[in-house]
Design brief:
The protein contains two helices and nine strands; from the N terminus they run H-E-E-E-H-E-E-E-E-E-E. By secondary structure, the chain is mainly β.
């Protein structure tokens, strides 16, 4: 904004302090980059449907703002990014969504939420509901899948709780 004489230093100061406009928007210096963390993106899909064979292979990394990760209540080291396939969790999760799974948030911290589970060699993503008697049920959000049987807790391994979802907007 140095070369533009219609924008005075006073106007810039008023916009920054009074309106919360970033100085970089006004042509000033760019803000310092924030701290980022690197989350592994696994080449594996958690099926919101009949199941997907689990083959844990790294498929790159996702860089996220460290403050954002902390706001999720997760340690970066305990997060993995994977893709959802199928429609049994519609409308909450859709085919192609990316999810962050907190592996620290498993059996010992079990509560209502959406979890990635392993049943035999198949990964699924389902809603886990913990009753007052600590009885656990596993459900799909899509009513078209409600009548299908879900595996019992004795037959599965809880891998982690879904703490974030991202999707491409059409």
């Amino acid at each position: 904004y140095e070369g533009n004489h219609s924008i005075t230093p006073r106007l810039v100061a008023d916009l920054i302090t009074g309106w919360g406009v970033a100085e970089s928007v006004l042509g000033g210096p760019l803000p310092e980059p924030s701290e980022t963390v690197s989350i592994p993106r696994l080449d594996v899909a958690a099926s919101a449907g009949p199941g997907a064979v689990a083959e844990d292979r790294a498929a790159g990394r996702m860089k996220l703002d460290a403050a954002f990760v902390r706001s999720l209540g997760a340690r970066a080291e305990a997060l993995s990014a994977i893709r959802v396939t199928g429609d049994s969790m519609e409308p909450t999760l859709s085919d192609g969504d990316d999810i962050l799974v907190n592996r620290d948030d498993g059996v010992t911290r079990l509560r209502d939420g959406i979890y990635v589970l392993r049943a035999e060699d198949v990964l699924i993503v389902k809603r886990v509901i913990v009753g007052e008697d600590r009885q656990v049920s596993i459900r799909s959000d899509n009513p078209a899948w409600a009548a299908r049987p879900a595996p019992g807790m004795a037959d599965i391994q809880l891998l982690g709780r879904v703490v974030w979802v991202g999707r491409r907007l059409a």
